[in-house]
Design goal:
It is built from six helices and two strands; from the N terminus they run αααββααα. It has helices at 5-19, 27-34, 38-50, 75-83, 108-124, 127-143, and strands at residues 54-57, 63-66. A two-stranded antiparallel ribbon has the order 1-2. With 144 residues, the chain is mostly helical. α1 packs across α4 (75-83), α1 (5-19) packs across α6 (127-143) and α4 (75-83) crosses α5. It comes from Candidatus Lachnoclostridium pullistercoris. Keywords: DNA-binding. One of its GO terms (molecular function) is DNA-binding transcription factor activity.
């Protein structure tokens, strides 16, 4: 399984919004800070906006902001929205096994454990955790 640029950039954009609480952030500012194409971010923010993850404000002082506190977003929520399923193989997607070989497939247990591990990790990390990690890394970089 490989996370696409859409998923990675959505995560970076959401982190950027979380790092600027109470501020309507313009996409051009996120693009400049994150060094990502503004046009690509506009496509991604549309997905986030439709899902209710961000809200928009029109006008000269407008922009986007998180619709919930960073602690209420898991990384899994953001990645699933932009990537779809995070399952490593189709036969364990959504908890239903559509493979006719599931009952005697030796690899099925491996795929299930891998799927559970992936979901366990992305669902246990919040956007707030990422903000805290970012601030710690920034602090450490300042000490060096």
């Amino acid at each position: 399984m490989k996370i696409s640029t859409k998923g990675r950039y959505a995560l970076r954009m959401m982190l950027d919004f979380a790092l600027h609480p109470g501020v309507c952030t313009k996409i051009k500012d996120v693009a400049a800070r994150q060094q990502i194409s503004e046009k690509y971010l506009e496509q991604i923010v549309t997905i986030l906006n439709k899902a209710g993850y961000v809200k928009s404000v029109r006008g000269a002082q407008g922009g986007y902001y998180l619709s919930m506190p960073p602690s209420e977003y898991t990384i899994g929520m953001i990645l699933r929205l932009t990537e779809g399923s995070l399952s490593p193989v189709d036969c364990v997607e959504g908890g239903m096994n559509s493979c006719g070989r599931a009952g005697y497939c030796a690899a099925n247990g491996v795929w299930r454990r891998l799927n559970d591990a992936i979901n366990g990790v992305v669902d246990s990390i919040t956007l707030e955790d990422m903000v805290n990690d970012y601030k710690k890394a920034e602090e450490q970089a300042g000490k060096e």
